[in-house]
Every structure is written in structure tokens, then in C-alpha cells.
Amino acid sequence: MSKSIRLDEPSPESGPVKIRVRWMERWHKSFHQLGIWAELTRNLAVRDVETRYKHSMLGLYWAIINPLVTAAIFGFVFGVIFHASSKPIPYVVFMLTGITFWNFFANGVMSAVGSISGNAALLAKIYFPRIVLPTASVLARFIDFMFSLLVLIVFIFIYHTPIYWSSLWIPVILVLQVFFTLGIGYLVAALNVLYRDVNQLVGLVLLVWMYFSPVMYPVTHLKPSLRSILLMNPMGSLLQMERDVIFTGHLQYPLFAWVALTWTVFVFFAGISLFRRIEPLFAEVM
Amino acid sequence: MTESIWIRPQTEYRDEQYFGVGMWSRVFAYLAIVVSAQVLRWSLYVSHGFDLGFYQQALAAWVENGFQAQSTYFPGGILQHNGAWLMTLLAYPAAVFGTGFLFVTESLAVALGYIPIIKMAKIAKLPPSQAALLGVLYLLNPLVIAGNLYDFHMSVLAAPLLLWGMVSLLESKMVPFAGFLVLLTGMGNHVSLAAILLVTLALMMKGIKPLTLVGIVLVGLWILVLQHYLRTPIMSWMFPPKGQLQVHESLRVLLYGAWSVAPFVLTLFMFLKTRRLYLSPYWLLPLIGLAIHILSASPAQTSPFDQKSTLLVPFLIWPVIDTAKHLGMSWSKREHFMMKLALIGMLGVMTLDFYHSAWRVRPQNTQVLTEALGHVSNHDWVYAQNNVLPHLGITAQEIPLSRLKPKTIPPGAEIVWDTQFSDKTTPAFVYADVKNLLHSHDVRVIFQKSGVLVLQLRSHHAQNHGA
Amino acid sequence: MATIVVDQVWKQFLLRRDRADSVGQLLTRMIPKRRPKTPPEPFWALRDISLDMPAGTSFGIVGNNGSGKSTLLKILTRTMSPTRGHVHIEGRVSALIELGAGFHPDFTGRENVYLNASILGISRKDIERKMSHIVDFAEIHAFIDTPVKYYSSGMNARLGFSVAISVDPEILIVDEVLAVGDEAFQQKCMDRIFQMKREGTSILLVSHSLSSIERLMDQAIWINQGVMQKSGSPREVVLAYRESMLDQNTAEPEDAQDESLDANETMRLQKAYVTSGDKVVETVLSGDPLSVMMFMENITGRQLTGHVGIAIRRPDGLEIASFSTVLDGNPLTFPAGQRRLSLNLSQLYLTHGRYEISITLYDENGRRLKEWPGAIDLKVQSLTMSPGLLVLPHQWVEN
Q1: Structure confidence at residue C344 (pLDDT)
Q2: Which of C22, C97, C111 lies at the smallest CB-CB distance from A125?
Q3: C88: which chain B residues are within 8 Å (Cβ-Cβ)?
Q4: Chains touching B, CB cut-off 8 Å, 3+ pairs
Q5: Range of the domain at B406
Q6: What is the pLDDT of residue B302?
Q7: Can you give the C-alpha Rg of chain C in angstroms?
């Protein structure tokens, strides 16, 4: 009854010139396509930030108040009650630096988790690479992070903390951090579609992870073996690097930068890989 | 612009299933795990670093003195000694980025060998899951892991080149094949045996063809250059004097041994499953290699797992692919899972090994060691135990303590000695020599704390070195 | 250019009852215990569907609910991937599936228009130019800057349709959306779809409105339970589908009353013809009076109550006029045995051409029992060869 139509993909015609033209065409096309998706990602991220702050009374101030309140609490608990010290940097600045950079990671992952499952309406009806959604939500948190970075700069000036020119390396380290966050974000976003309580689990893991990263304590005075283990954690190493280039002027533990680099690359690719594998199930499971 | 879209089922074998993101995530997983292990060991001062010390010195000497830099261990230039001309490319980046760069370079090179294996498996028309398994068989082979994990060897970087050479053989592409052979020569004279095996493989696969002849001529020329121009004792590199392999009968060697026979076990499994026997002629090559390797073991060797056997792994993987291609079998999901699990067990052994050597047996006074290194001046020759040496950074003047000869110590040289810890490569007589020096009043103690000593030889000692 | 080729597509869903849907469940499942192992049940939503839709043609898909139409469309719009088989689409696709396009509930209507445009790869500048058209067409001027979550379903559908057609698609895929809006909007949409069809856009339409498929589409397929039942001209396909629906209705009697009026068993149409001026004719002149004569036989031996409908159609399926006792509100009684029934039309102003008259039998509740499509063929001759459907009595007056 149903007539069968044999489909074969266009095979590259003979002749190297034709193949080259095909390749160029394909590259051109995929770059064009990539541009479209990048534009879409950007739009989604900006809209995300806008809607998030448009409908709340304090508007964009949330991006600033959040780290401030956290820093105030931890600063009080650890700085005043436990007398944590982070010489030569004032503890509040030390703390706020850690919180600011950590919050970007934690918030990025947390908002990526629900990015797929929370957009079922969009997914069921229109095609676009689903990976755009978690990417956009991480980017949105990156925009937030830029605002809280302003607060950090203000605090650094208030406390007259000396900073070094090597701070200009921050963007490079941030690129690593963004990719690491994206990798983890893809992973949890995809898993959250299959298992709905990944959301809660991620919150718990992030809490534990924060205490195992040098967010609120310096690692310089720790036992070397303990320090090595804490810095094996890529986020720990990234935070340490970020603090080092701002306040120390050089990397104190340069070898661990390689750990952060290799794990970032791995986590990013593993995130995409797992995401792609689960992607076809999205429409069926949701 | 008109868009053209192909919608395909998820279950088909296509390029992206072999070479897609999945492949890259596996490659980088290996890189991340191995680099982490290397860095953690290094930071705990348990890196063997025996050869790492030599290589670091050679690289630093090139940066300081140009490519004519002389070797401190053997008469003649460094390049003449090892013939690894590609290593010169590493010199400047290594000087800038430090030891971590060498670790990452080596692990990345080994990890990238995964790609040609997938390619070979695809040419042999094996499904993606089998290709991935064969790739893991290579990555987690103890001969590969043990050869590169905690140390650095230029020759290990040849492993992916050998595999790419095999791919170009399978595709009968002469120019890439010749190119890979030329690059292979840049990995030093340690690779000569592997290069000869590769040309033999070409001969076995293709017979007498232009491609084979080009390979034979290239390798022949190279060996002539090594022998007559660089005057390397090439034959002794390929066939070192026959010696007794002193296998240290440890649990580690046993466990590593169990996993290193995985290619044979997998082949056996294929025989049993298909009830057919296919003996690939290509088994000949790794067996010859292994035989040469084991029979000609140097006395210093304590286990069959070192960097020289690493290059045999590509020759072990090819016959497995060949067998799988001939038997054309498929295995169930469950079997596949079990096999992967068995291979990943190797990571467990690696962790055990790691725990044994890095966690239990390690210098307890690492803080003091770090402190002591602060007292070492950068301008003088430094002798240090192998586990400490990489911490000195990449300098031209660092020498493993095991190479210390009282008569040839340059004046002003410093010695870092952790009396509480043995690095397992420094012989007892060296420690005796250092003790003698300590009592001879020729040395000044710069630093002394919890058993860590930094000594400096007074300048009137011994004759001028390097003149 | 703008073609869709579907090559032997199969789609399987795994209805795995014991799939863990939370990590907690996953962990509890890891505790080994004796659990009856339920193997995953494969469910084929589509089996071996092939279709070839050349550029510029329009395609209709008919089928019951759950027959796999939506799955096919989801595969075509790439929100799902097939288990087997290939699909090749050339041309920009704009799709409207199940009430409204893909909208982000938190974004305003305007933002969603931008979002959809950027997903379809239309530049912001282009879409800004078209914004007023979109808003006009959707008739939501006041709400365009309100978040979409506050929209009514009708507004949603209107905006969705408006966006989908405004991106200049080469292929338009429409699924049941038209069921939402009010009748005026539905008409507007259909007109617009027609206009696009004339301008060369390929159209793929899923609809329960069989007449619109019959009328508007160049080709149609009928899918039932994932299997392609028939493909070909929309007329044949719709006919086959209608027949099967009738079979289904008769096959599954719902209550006792149905049994009393079982279509196949109860009534027969013995003969039917057209008379004009007491003569049996096959050809009538436009403007002449006309009677449709039917001889029906009640074979149950009991008296039955029911309705009869008569429809005059063009061969392409367009219904020109229909008459039904259901609408007129007076049920007919059929005593046992033969009964003659006639419908008198005083004048029939049809244009020159071929027509057919279908007869449908309903039960007393208005449920369709049996249809005799094309029961009578009718030719109409007209003195003037005017285009259009009707030749209305007219006269020109010069003042």
C-alpha cells in the first residue's frame, strides 16, 4: 500500500574541487546556523535576566543584595565568631571574592537544572537545539555575576586592598569557569528531565561542594596533603587561581591550574555528550 | 536561503557516532583522570620523576644554550644523544609553563591515540560500541598507563603516531604514511624498534608496493643517520644487552599483568563466541616486540611495565581489530557492559597502586621540603632525589641524586636530601657518598630541619666541571 | 525546493512501566529484591510511513485520535526523531502544532514573536517590519506587551498562527489549531492558508474537518494506528476514511437503541434518481425545478424513526448545498417495507458542470448511520458559461 521511496544522502561527487566546494558550503552553512543559535541564546539570556528582575520589586538589586547578605552572614560567623583570618587580605573582601565567583557557578548550575523541564511548552512545539536553553540560563547568571562583580570592586576599594595587574588574567580564568559551569549545567539539565528530583540533589551537592572549595577559608595554611586534595577539585583550583591573580599577583599553585583546565575540557564535552544522548528522549518523557 | 534538513534515526552508525562528542569526552576523561593523578602525586612528592628530571634538564639546557647544548650525563650534545628533534619544540613552552605542561602533553598525546583506533575500527566496519571498547582497551592498557603516568618520556608521544601510521596503511595513503614515519623519527632513537615493526606491518599488509618501499627507505636512512652521523649505539637501543629481568614480584605487577593480557583474552572470547579460530598474522609483531623487550631487559628494571613496552600496544590492538573484522561478531549489550567493566577495573588497580605508593609511602615532611626548596639558589647545580627534582622547576642545572659522583660534582653545587625518605631509584652508595661529603667539611649546611638537608659544596672542592 | 520526503519511517515508544522517574526511585530499585520483571512494552506509533510531497503541493492527513498523526508531525518538525527511516525536508518549515506556537510563558507576546523569529532564523529587523502585520492579523493590539501566560487560548492560537505565517515559510505545517479560534478567525486562517498555497507554499494540514481537506488539498493520506491506510487524491482518501468511520460506528454499538436502527441491517437504498418536470433525467438545465427521489427499504420489520440528509457536492468535494431533516427538525418514520421519499427544489441555480448528490441516513439523535456518497450523478447545463458556483437570477438595469 505505501510506496517506498528510497532516500540516499547526497554523496560527495567525484573530483576534489567539488568536494572542497561542498565542504566550504557546509562550513559556511553550519557557521551561519551557529550564528543563529548564538543569537537565540543571547536573546534568551537577556530576556531571562529582564523578566527575572522586571517583575520583582527590587529589580536588578537582587544580583547585588544576594552576595552581600551571604557575605555578611558568613563574614559574621567565620570572621567574628570563629576568627578566621586570611592575611594579608581583609576577611570580608576575601570572603566576598569567594562568594561572588562561587555564586556564579552555583547559580548557573541551579538555573540550568530546570531550564529544560521548565520549558516543556516550548520544547514540544518548535525545533531548535535544546542545548540553547541551559546555555542561555548559565549566560543569564553570568550577566548577574557581572553586576555582583561591581560590588566586589567597590568593596576592594573601600578596604584599600592592594590588587595586582595580573587581575587582567581574570577573563581567561572566567572562560574556564564558564565552560565548567556549562558542562555541569548540561549534565544536570538533561538528567533532570529523566529524574525529577535531580533538582533537590543538585542543591545538596552544591552545598557540600561549597564547603569543600576554598570559598570561605584560605588554603595556604593547610597541611600540604589536605591542600592538594582540596585543589584537585576543579572549582577549588579555579577559585584559588582567581584570588591569586587578584591579590597575590601570581599563581601560588600553578600545577593545579592544569587540573582545572583538563577537568573543564572533560566536563564540558561530557556534558554535551550526555545531553545529546538524552535529547531525543525529551519530547517523549516530558 | 533554502534550508535542507536530514532527519535520521538515532540508531544508525554514522560518523558522529564514531567521532562525535562522545569520543572527545572519552579522550578528555582519560586526560583529566591521568593528569589529576600525576599532579596529585607530584604535589605529594612521590613522583618517580627519574626520567622527568633528565628531560626537564635537557629542555632547559636547550632554552639556555641553544640546540648545541651538551648533555651532562653522556659525552656530546643532547640532540645527538637521544635524536628526538621534535622535542625541541617543547623546550620553550615547557620553560614557560613548567612541569605540568609536560604531564599534560604526554597524557594528551596518549589520549589522542584513541582517535586512530576508532578510525581503524570503522574502516574494519565494526560498530561504534566495539570501536569504543577497543579504544578503551588501548587507553587502559597497563603498558600504556605504567609507561607514562608519573613520568615523562618523549618516546611515549610516538604511540598515537604509530596508530595514525597504521590508519594511513589501511587507507593505502603513501604521503601521510611517510609523513608519520618522518614525525616518528622526531621522537628519538627509542622509537627505532617500533618504526621497524611499523614498516614490517606495511610489508605484511601491502606486500612490495611503493608505499612499503618508501617506508623501508625512510627507516633505513634514519637508522643510518642515527648510527653514522649521530653515532648513537642504535643496535644497543634496539637490542639492549641480554639481561635477566628482575621482576619485582609485587601485587602491583601481578595485577597489571592480569590487565595487560586483555587483548588476548578478548580475542579468546571472540573465538569461543563464534566457535571459529582465526589467527591473525599480525600477532607476530607484538610478540616479537614483547620477546625482545623482555629478553633484553635492563637490570634497573623491576617490572615489565615501562615506557618501552608502551609502543607495543598499538601492535597489540591491530590484531584484535583484525580478528574482530574477520569473525564479524556482535556481542550483546550485557557482554559489552561486562567487558567495559573489566577494563575499567584497571582504573581501580591504578587507584590501588596510587594509594599504595602515593598515600601510604610518601615523605611525611612535605612542608619542610617546600621550605627547604626556598633555600636553593637557582644559579647553581642542584642534586636532588627524584621525587623532589620536579619541584625545582625546569632548570638546566638539576640532576637526579642517583647520578651523583663525588669526583665530578661542580663547585658551588647544592644537594637537597630528605634523609627520611628513599625515592627507590637512588642507590645506597650515593647516600654513603653524600654522608662522606657531609663529614668532609667540604660542604656547608644551608638548611636543616626535620631530617631535610640542603648542602652546598665549597668552591675549592673538586676540579672544574664541564670544562 | 520546499519538498518533504518521508522514507519508511517507524517510530517506537517505550511504555516502560517501571522506568524510574526520580533518583530516589532509581536508588530504591538498586536494592535487589524479587520483583516481577516487566519487559518494556514496545509501542509502534508509526509503522512504515512513506510520503513524497513535491514542492508547492498541499497535503492533508486524516485519521482518528491517537492514530499517529501528531507523532508524524513531531518528527517532521524535528521535536522527535524517528526510530527507523529517514526524512528529508528542503525549505524553511513553519509549524503550528496543538494550540499556538512554541511560546515562552513568561515573555510578552512581542518578545515571543522575536523569540520565534530568531528560532526560525529571521533577523530582528525583518520581523520588526512585519510586527504590525502580525499584531493586526492576530487582533491582539491591547495585549501584545502582556506575558503570554495571561493570554486566552484563542489569543494564543491567533498569535501563533499569525507568527507562523509571517515568517515566509516555504512549508507550512498546521495541526488542528484552527479548532480553537472563533469561526470568523477560522475562516480568516483558511483564507490565508489558501492564499499562501496559491503563492506556492507547500502545506501540510492535519484536520478533523474532512471537507476542508477534501476541498483544499492536492493529496491526502489516511493513517490509522500508525499504519498508512490509503494515500492518493483527497476525495478517495476521505471517502475511505469516512467509510471506515461508519464501519467503526456500526461495529461498536453503544446502547440498546442503536441495535434497533442498525444501518446495514435496517435500511437499504434501493434506488435514487432525479426528476425534473416528472421525467427521470440525468441532465438538468440550470434554473429548472428538481426533485430527488429515493426508494428506501426498512428490512427490520419494525417501524423506525430517523433522519435523512441530502448534499449536493462538486466532484472535488465542495459542499454546495445540503438539506437535512435533522436541521429542519422533523424526524421521519420508516414503517416496515419500502418507502418513497422525495425532496423538491423549486429551482436549481447551479453553474454548468458535473455534480453529485449524496444521501446520508441518521438515527433519531442525529448520529450518522450510513452514507451513500455520490448516490446520484447529476449534470447541469447552463446557457451561460459563467464561472463560480451559482447562476443567480438577475437582470441589468440601465438608468
Answers
A1: 86
A2: C97
A3: 4-7
A4: A, C
A5: 366-457
A6: 55
A7: 26
- For residue C254, pLDDT over 70 is answered with no
Phi-psi group of B412: left, alpha or beta (phi > 0 → left; psi -120 to 50 → alpha; rest → beta): left
Which chain A residue is nearest to residue B107, measuring alpha carbons? A262
Q: Could you report the per-residue pLDDT of B149-184, keeping only the tens digit for each? A: 778 888 888 999 999 999 999 998 889 999 999 999
Q: Are strands C58-62 and C219-224 parallel, antiparallel or unpaired?
A: parallel
Query: What 3-state DSSP class applies to B449?
Result: strand
CA distance C44 to chain A (A): 13
* Tally of structural domains, chain A: 1
Type and span of the H or E element at C339: strand C337-345
Backbone conformation region of residue C301, classed left if phi is above 0, alpha if psi is from -120 to 50, else beta: left
Q: How far is B7 from chain C (nearest CA, A)?
A: 5
- Rounded-to-integer distance, Cα B89 and Cα B104, Å: 15
Domain extent listing, chain C: 3-21+38-243, 267-381
Structural domain harbouring A107: 63-285
Domain count, chain B: 2
- Regarding whether B229 and B289 lie in a shared domain, the answer is yes
Count contacts between A and C (CB, < 8 Å). Answer: 99
Please determine, looking at this structure, whether the domain spanning C267-381 carries the CATH number 2.70.50.60. Answer: yes
| Helices and strands, counts by H and E, chain B | 22, 6
Degrees to nearest 5, angle at CA B411 with B409 and B413? 70
Distance CA A279, CA A189 (A): 10
Report the CATH superfamily, name and number, of domain C3-21+38-243.
P-loop containing nucleotide triphosphate hydrolases (3.40.50.300)
Residues of C in contact with B3 (CB under 8 A): 89-93, 121
**Pairing mode, if any, of strands C227-232 and C332-334?**
unpaired
Q: Give this prediction's pTM.
A: 0.82
Interchain CB distance below 8 Å, B2 and C2: yes
Is B249 found in the same domain as B188?
A: yes
Minimal CA separation from B101 to chain A, in Å: 8
From chain C, the residues in CB contact with A283 under 8 A are: 74, 79-80
Q: Please indicate, yes or no, if residue B231 is contained in any of the structural domains.
A: yes
Q: Tell me the ipTM for this assembly.
A: 0.87
> Can you name the residues that pair with C305 across neighbouring β-strands?
C333
* Residues in chain A where the model's pLDDT stays below 70: 1-21, 55-60, 286
